[in-house]
Amino acid sequence: MSSIFTILLIITSLSVSSLPILEYESYLSSDKLRSDKVISSEAKIKAPIKKDIKSLGPQLSAQKAIVVDKKSGIVLFAKEDKEKHSMASITKLITALVFLEIEPNLDQRFEMIEEDDREGAEKFIQPGESAKLRDYLISSLLGSANNATITLTRSTGISTEEFVKRMNQKAKELKMYDTFFVEPSGLDPKNKSTARDMVKLLNAVESNDIIHEIAGMYSSSIVVYPSGIRRNIVTTNHLMGSIVFVEFGKTGYLDESLFNLATIVSTSNGNELYIVILGSQTNEERVQDAKNLAVWAERVYSWE
Prior knowledge:
This protein is of the alpha+beta class. The chain has helices at residues 2-15, 31-34, 91-101, 133-141, 146-155, 160-173, 195-206, 209-215, 283-300; strands at residues 49-50, 64-69, 75-79, 85-86, 109-111, 130-132, 192-193, 219-224, 229-234, 245-254, 258-266, 272-280, 301-302.
């Protein structure tokens, strides 16, 4: 009886076509991947070795994503990383860069006016109130406040058009050739970039001590005048406090972009990764996508 059952199983298996094995070149540990650098460096740094070349990476909610080894600049994972996507509030990183290049006095108090006010995101400073420029910067980068971002740009004394022009010039300097801005807060979905270009932005921002410090905090507080009230601001980057150690990062959300995240994380063995997530369906899935990519990269790759 058992022999008849075995014969039937063999016949059945032969009649069913086998499932295709999908291999995506950009995920594999090949010579081509080794030369695929996002960040260029004169130093010859050995790239991490992929121990499990069959692993294509975790399943993601995100429409687009990239993981880059910080030291070598090598792409470890990519999903539609060269396709343009609305940046949303990740825009605020380059706004901060351009603002700080003007060398403002961050202890200067400046008043927010009605024309600065914008919908969306929490408002830590209201029109008619004033605060130090540093506190506007904290509101913008940590709390993702749109009105604080607009006040910062106005405080420079240059027009919005000129400020946006400088943002686009800065993008070109950083070789972000697939990036374009139309306004500084991230509210306009026409502010577009790619996951790959956002790694270049993270790399540039990392060397700015002020942005690095603010975007790396879990929480902070600001003082608003004339009341002198202190208001607390907690990061919008909910990857902080998870199993992944976050160096710094910036979130973004629009109906058109869904949930974005650009961040630098450290693995348990001290290696740093650039991770960009674009178009996750929910905030929770954005965080989970980033965690999954960080854990996957540490499990699959070996740094020697």
